[in-house]
Amino acid sequence: MNPNLNLWLIPILPLAGAAINGFFGKKSSRQAVTTVALFFSGAAFAWALWVAARFSSLTLPYQEYFAHWIRSGSFSVDFAFYLDQLSLVMLLIVTGVGFLIHIYSVGYIWEDPSYYRFFSYLNLFMFFMLTLILAGNYLQMFIGWEGVGLASYLLIGFWFTKDSAASAGKKAFIVNRIGDFGFLIALFLLIKHFGSLNFSSVFASIKPFAPETAGVGLLTTIGILLMVGACGKSAQIPLYVWLPDAMEGPTPVSALIHAATMVTAGVYMVSRSHVIFERAPIALTVVAIIGTLTAFFAATIGIAQTDIKKVLAYSTVSQLGYMFMACGVGAFSAGIFHLMTHAFFKGLLFLAAGSVIHSVGGEQDMRQMGGLRTKIPWTFWSMTAATLAISGIPGFSGFFSKDEILWRSYQASWIYWFVGVITALLTSFYMFRLWFLTFFGEYRGTAESAQGTAHGHDAHGPHGHGGIHESPKVMVIPLVILAVLATVGGYIGVPGSLGGNNHFDKFLGPVFRSALPEGAQNASIGEKSASEKETEGAEPKTEASTELIFTGISVLAALTGFGVAWLFYYRRRDLPAKIVASFSGTYDTLVHKYYVDEIYAAVFVKPLINFSTRVLWQDVDRKVIDAAVNDAGYGAEHVSDEVRHMQSGNLRSYAGWIAAGSAAVIAFMIWMGVR
Amino acid sequence: MINSYVPLSYYLLLSAFLFACGVLGFLIKRNIITIFMSIELMLNGVNLSFVAFAAHWHALAGQIFVFFVMVVAAAESAVGLAIIISVFRTRETLNVDQVNLLKL
Predict the structure, then answer these.
(1) How many CA atoms lie less than 13 Å away from A37 in the CB half-sphere?
(2) Residue A661 pLDDT greater than 90, yes or no
(3) Who contacts A191 (Cβ-Cβ below 8 Å, separation ≥6)?
(4) Are A209 and A219 in contact, with CB atoms under 8 Å apart?
């Protein structure tokens, strides 16, 4: 028997914070708002830690019933909570990183007049994200799923007076709707065929199914539809376009929502539904292919961007691609592992970028930075840790998780691995490019932006910048904590070939293993079953040495990326211009992000707008709906105008009508009588 | 005693004719006194049909109704004439088309 953990408190606490700040924040002081926001997000974190401390004594999955929701015949959905190793990991990431980013935001957003609104939204986001993670059924997960979309919309458009921010918010919301459509259809299919949305009962009724190797069946359909939903939320091809634009929001938002937590919801959802995916090899292949393509293409776009946050945005898209690649080859725990390390280092990268932007007075163009190494040392060192981590330099967290993914994807197909390694090289290149451009060389910005008079993109209030300066302590401390996590976070999952025993994989093991029935496991798709089995015990010696070779290759790729970046952006800074000159076509394509936004605009947006304007507005709305209403009014007016003459006020004409009417009645009665 | 050789329809036709005359007079005439007389004519047309039926069916109810009608008609003419006199005093006309203050 499990003790009552009161899991419902974890999402409710940030909701309370959001409500208090939202309703009363306007009149409270900044200190009060800060206290409320930090207390409630910190309390959620503390509760999560408490849950984690008691975790080992639980029988899993721990389920908690909170309240009725929907009862309709045999179909029922409750507000319920579901805790297993997977949700615990997510819970700690979201509350922990979320709390750190709350602290950081205090310094970042202090000058903004809508201080309280920011924290209210941020807490609201935490509420929905925790609802998503702790949900005991798909519908509750969907509430969280939509809710984080709402919070994301509100926060992207936080500076809504700026047109670009408002439309970026709308874009994110609308693109997400496309994904949610797929998700919803998948839910309907689940209801229709399994009569339930509760994780435990759905998974229990799916367990006896054999993998659908023959062709597209029910589970494959559900899997692909779920993936459509994940594509929207986690910014995968073809729905990734909203994420780079989402950088219009304040930088802590980019860190929390668009790097560390919300965008990983898709990965979480796919991992949570692994029971379905494992029985739908075609859907898994789709996941893997989408992930691989996204990882690669986003990385190539990242190379050519000059906006520091845009580079990080494409990098996020690319890293999410890695996670889906991992899920797609059946290595869910590797995907979640990368999700965790990514939350640390990418959250840190964004926060550090925010600190850089803050220090140079709102400038986001890396070409206007440079030489900041000595001026903002704390930011520099934490950013260095994050850059090393994301590039996969050995010893840092990203190395372990990325290496795990690459190795597991090699076991599925060498193509995934190959593209993955190329992507790793590109990742390393663009990250060190960012690093060199920002921190090395000499300062290229104008003097006045350093004085803080020029307020660019991310301007936050009239704010006396005394030149380039380090951010306040409240911003630096989260950076340092995350830097430590980004450095050592990988050691909980050191793979066997490197002398570790992959605690992380073992910890998540019970969630992902034993998903397939014993017999079906052998029958399942060739390489994947090998990888399945492999996790069950210690890796064989021969494989360990092969794995070491592959590790060597990916380290080599990371170092090559570093070397090229060093050559281009430190040693020979004239080289990039020459290369750009000789490959101007390719470069233009990359700068314009493969013209995807333009293609979408031409193929989907423009026709939709034209159709809406010409047909829906001009024809349907104005000529049918408006016309019907107006004509009804005009018609009544015309008829009344005519009929009005009867009411002349002339007594004798009334009498005439009465006489005529009576005559008609009499005539009718006579006619009836005669008949 | 009505001559039983005169058929009922003759009375009814006369009654209808009187009523129609009243209606026509009411509709056509402008003089308020004439209109008033037309109303009396209609009432009497109706009275005639009442008594004719009463005699025909040997039922007294019709004749009692006639008394009622005559009482109401007398009261109505008293009130009506009083109104006409006061209208004439204020407006100095008996033409109904000019008594149109309440008209639209």
Answers:
(1) 32
(2) yes
(3) A75, A197
(4) yes
Sort A665 into a burial class: Cβ within 10 Å, 0-12 / 13-18 / 19+: exposed
Among positive and negative, which fits the CA dihedral A219, A223, A225, A229?
positive
Whichever domain contains B35, its CATH number is 1.10.287.3510
- Total Cβ atoms within 10 A of residue A482: 31
Report the alpha-carbon distance of residue A129 to residue A152 in Å, rounded. Answer: 11
* B47 part of a folded domain: yes
Residue B43 lies in a domain: yes
Report pTM.
0.77
Residue type, A469: H
Taking contacts as CB-CB distances below 8 angstroms, the residues of chain A near B103 are 648-650
Q: What tokens were used for A99?
A: 């709390």
One DSSP character per residue, A391-427 reads HT-TTSHHHHHHHHHHHHHHHH-HHHHHHHHHHHHHH
Nearest by CB to B26, from A649, A650, A655: name it.
Answer: A655
* Lowest-confidence pick of A355-359, A414-418, A441-445, B68-72: A441-445
Q: In chain A, what residues touch B100 (CB-CB under 8 Å)?
A: 649-650
CB-CB contact of A155 with A262 (8 Å): no
Confidence check: pLDDT of A460 > 70: no
Residues ≥6 apart with Cβ < 8 Å to A163: none
Q: Is the dihedral of CA A459, A460, A464, A467 positive or negative?
A: negative
Mean pLDDT score, A576-593: 81
**Distance from C-alpha of A231 to C-alpha of A240, rounded to nearest angstrom:** 7
Q: Which residues contact A544 (CB under 8 A, 6 or more apart)?
A: A496, A497
Tally the residues of chain B.
104
Measured distance CA(A276)–CA(A287) in Å, rounded: 13
pLDDT of the residue at A447: 59
Domain total of chain B: 1
Give the C-alpha separation, A243 to A248, whole Å: 10
Contact B23 A659 (CB under 8 A): yes
Whether B21 is in a domain gets the answer no
Whether the CB-CB separation of A206 and A279 falls below 8 Å is answered with yes
CA distance B32 to chain A (A): 11
Q: Mean pLDDT across the stretch A326-354?
A: 91
* Cα dist from B57 to A56, A620, B7, B11, B54, whole Å: 109, 70, 13, 14, 5
Set of chain A residues whose Cβ sits within 8 Å of the Cβ of B97:
650
Burial class (CB in 10 A: 0-12, 13-18, 19+), A203: middle
Across the interface, do A652 and B26 touch by the CB < 8 Å criterion?
yes
Q: Is B96 on the interface with A (CB under 8 A)?
A: yes
Rounded Cα–Cα distance for residues A634 and A658 (Å): 29
Q: What is the mean pLDDT of residues A81-102?
A: 92
Which whole-number Å values give the CA distances from A645 to A45, A638, A639, A649, B103, in the listed order? 78, 12, 11, 9, 12
Residue A75 pairs in a beta bridge with A72
- Give residue B68's domain range: 30-98
Task: Centre a 10 Å sphere on the Cβ of residue A556 and count the other Cβ atoms it contains.
Answer: 13
Q: Which of A257-261, A446-450, B40-44 has the highest mean pLDDT?
A: B40-44
Q: Dump strand ranges (E) for A170-298.
A: none
Look up residue A183 and give its amino acid. Answer: F
State whether A659 and B103 contact (CB < 8 Å): no
Helix (H, G, I), strand (E, B) or coil at A64: strand
pLDDT the model gives residue A126: 94
Do B43 and B68 form a contact (C-beta atoms < 8 A)?
A: no
Assigned domain for B6 exists: no
Residue from A641, A652, A653, A666 whose CB has the most chain B CBs within 10 Å, to mutate:
A652
